[in-house]
């Protein structure tokens, strides 16, 4: 029998599972752990649950919507940082740490008005991981657990920049509607994706964009006269390790670039070891002048971080790099779709990508009776 309920009657409360209060060597202790009605367990961690990495990897492979930004390579280093406000909510089906059904990273925002489900560092795709096995039941339990009085979290959950036609958006809206919970879809926008061959002649550029593109071409011709411009891709663990060393040297001048690089390095190293990383780079006279860091999994590539040498920022080398990446990825048999992560770009080169996708933010009042609060939050975010 489905556990999705359309009434708003009283529900049996979740129960603390006292047997899990025992501290085990080598395992992070959850901030709270509850038993849910199905017999599964809900837990919150503010420290890295390293012992659950294999289960997290398995969930990432079987989720209704794949999201490399919610995998251990991103999650565990961030939870290990001092003063991090990030937390991770996990749902497990049955005993043990091997049967994860949901993973959601989040932090409390807006002076406690809502929780924001987000990728690490706010740059990346933000959809939580939900198992393909009974996804609506899992989401129903997740919303109920997050709303529980013992967990002491805000009553509104915000899921930003989701693919409007993505599986998480569809299932989360369906569960909220079935439970009678208020939800709002805001910040609708369009962005292009690279899937299939490009047609530069048929790109839908506005007159202003065509003028800007011609200016870029002139800058690239001038750059070629200054020295040989090279393009290289690091595609295996040894190549990515070497290129990360070069990228470290590129980011020594600007404090913001250095901070971004230091933050991404543990994740990039882990992705590289797992053969889930590509780094695209431009060189002038043998020296790196721009680089794009691109995680890849199951045929999906995301442009995650882009770095440009400070003295090259006016030469449109980032646009040239994205265009060369575009040409390469259309020929790469291991990549079916390329997207720029929310928080990156947009780049004029994306206008040549043939597919247009919708994105939107989903707000769910995970407790009944919060219609006014969610409307106020939606208005605040629109403003």
Automatic annotation (TrEMBL):
Question: Which Pfam families does the annotation name?
Answer: Acetyltransf_6
InterPro entries in the cross-refs? BioF2-like_GNAT_dom
Q: Where is the BioF2-like acetyltransferase domain?
A: 219-328
What is this protein's name? BioF2-like acetyltransferase domain-containing protein
Q: Which organism is it from?
A: Martelella mediterranea DSM 17316
């Amino acid at each position: 029998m489905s556990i999705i309920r359309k009434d708003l009657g009283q529900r049996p409360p979740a129960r603390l599972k006292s047997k899990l209060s025992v501290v085990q060597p080598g395992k992070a202790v959850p901030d709270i752990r509850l038993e849910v009605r199905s017999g599964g367990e809900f837990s919150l961690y503010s420290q890295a649950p390293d012992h659950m990495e294999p289960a997290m990897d398995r969930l990432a492979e079987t989720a209704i919507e794949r999201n490399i930004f919610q995998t251990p390579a991103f999650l565990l280093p961030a939870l290990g940082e001092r003063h991090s406000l990030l937390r991770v909510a996990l749902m497990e089906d049955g005993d043990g740490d091997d049967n994860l059904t949901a993973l959601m990273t989040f932090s409390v925002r807006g002076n406690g008005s809502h929780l924001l489900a987000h990728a690490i560092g706010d740059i990346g795709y933000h959809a939580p991981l939900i198992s393909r096995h009974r996804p609506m039941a899992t989401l129903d339990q997740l919303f109920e657990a997050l709303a529980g009085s013992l967990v002491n979290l805000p009553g509104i959950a915000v899921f930003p920049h989701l693919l409007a036609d993505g599986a998480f958006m569809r299932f989360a809206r369906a569960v909220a509607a079935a439970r009678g919970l208020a939800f709002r879809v805001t910040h609708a926008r369009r962005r292009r994706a690279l899937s299939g061959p490009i047609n530069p002649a048929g790109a839908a550029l506005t007159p202003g964009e065509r003028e800007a593109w011609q200016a870029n071409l002139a800058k690239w011709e001038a750059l070629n006269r200054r020295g040989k411009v090279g393009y290289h891709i690091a595609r295996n663990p040894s190549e990515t390790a070497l290129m990360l060393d070069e990228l470290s040297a590129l980011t020594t001048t600007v404090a913001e670039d250095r901070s971004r690089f230091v933050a991404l390095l543990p994740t990039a190293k882990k992705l590289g070891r797992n053969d889930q990383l590509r780094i695209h780079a431009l060189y002038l006279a043998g020296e790196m002048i721009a680089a794009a860091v691109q995680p890849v999994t199951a045929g999906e590539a995301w442009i995650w971080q882009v770095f440009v040498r400070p003295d090259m920022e006016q030469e449109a080398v980032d646009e040239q790099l994205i265009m060369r990446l575009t040409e390469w990825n259309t020929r790469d048999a291991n990549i079916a779709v390329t997207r720029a992560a929310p928080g990156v770009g947009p780049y004029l080169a994306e206008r040549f990508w043939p597919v247009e996708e919708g994105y939107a933010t989903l707000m769910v009042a995970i407790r009944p009776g919060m219609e006014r609060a969610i409307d106020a939050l939606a208005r605040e975010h629109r403003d």
